[in-house]
């Protein structure tokens, strides 16, 4: 009987310690992001910066759900003449598509996802995002075909499995 309050006290201390650890980690992550944000804004406002810097600033804007400024940064990155890496271009077009999709501009999002796939045809994330945009536009057969393309590349992709199955049930419901 004497040990019960002590056990509860240790359990409480353990829970509080764990919660404090997670709060501390989140504060550090937020602080790091804000420092990067300030540095990139200052650097780019002085005209010093490459496509990668615009991409990183755009990504921070995406994290903050500031889609308009994110789109502007991604478009500035695309104007960089030194950006020729297909993988980098694919990432950039996918991020731009994501920002458009978040604003429910699905036609523009689809165009950007297709650009990403022209740069890197086996880019599974862009394919999943393209399928999502097709779904939102009610282009269900294109969405299913896109998710099937994902499954051809990654048979265990849970997003594509779940969405493809759901869409197939919507298109041809069982009686």
UniProtKB/TrEMBL annotation:
One of its GO terms (molecular function) is glycosyltransferase activity. Pathway: Protein modification; protein glycosylation. Keywords: Glycosyltransferase, Membrane, TPR repeat, Transferase, Transmembrane, Transmembrane helix. It comes from Synechococcus elongatus (strain ATCC 33912 / PCC 7942 / FACHB-805) (Anacystis nidulans R2). The chain crosses the membrane at residues 6-24. PANTHER family: PROTEIN O-GLCNAC TRANSFERASE, UDP-N-ACETYLGLUCOSAMINE--PEPTIDE N-ACETYLGLUCOSAMINYLTRANSFERASE SPINDLY-RELATED. The lineage of its organism: Bacteria, Bacillati, Cyanobacteriota, Cyanophyceae, Synechococcales. This is TPR repeat. TPR repeats lie at residues 90-123, 124-157.
């Amino acid at each position: 009987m004497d040990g019960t309050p002590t056990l509860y006290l240790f359990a409480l201390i353990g829970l509080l310690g764990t919660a404090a650890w997670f709060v501390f980690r989140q504060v550090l992550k937020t602080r790091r992001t804000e420092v990067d944000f300030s540095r990139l804004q200052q650097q780019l406002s002085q005209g010093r910066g490459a496509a990668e810097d615009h991409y990183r600033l755009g990504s921070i804007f995406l994290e903050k759900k500031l889609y308009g400024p994110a789109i502007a940064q991604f478009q500035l990155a695309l104007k960089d003449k030194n950006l020729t890496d297909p993988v980098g271009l694919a990432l950039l077009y996918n991020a731009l598509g994501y920002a458009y999709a978040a604003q429910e501009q699905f036609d523009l999002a689809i165009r950007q996802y297709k650009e990403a796939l022209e740069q890197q045809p086996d880019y599974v994330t862009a394919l999943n995002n393209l399928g999502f945009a097709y779904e939102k536009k009610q282009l269900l057969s294109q969405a299913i075909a896109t998710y099937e393309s994902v499954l051809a590349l990654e048979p265990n992709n849970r997003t594509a499995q779940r969405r493809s199955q759901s869409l197939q049930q919507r298109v041809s419901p069982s009686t």
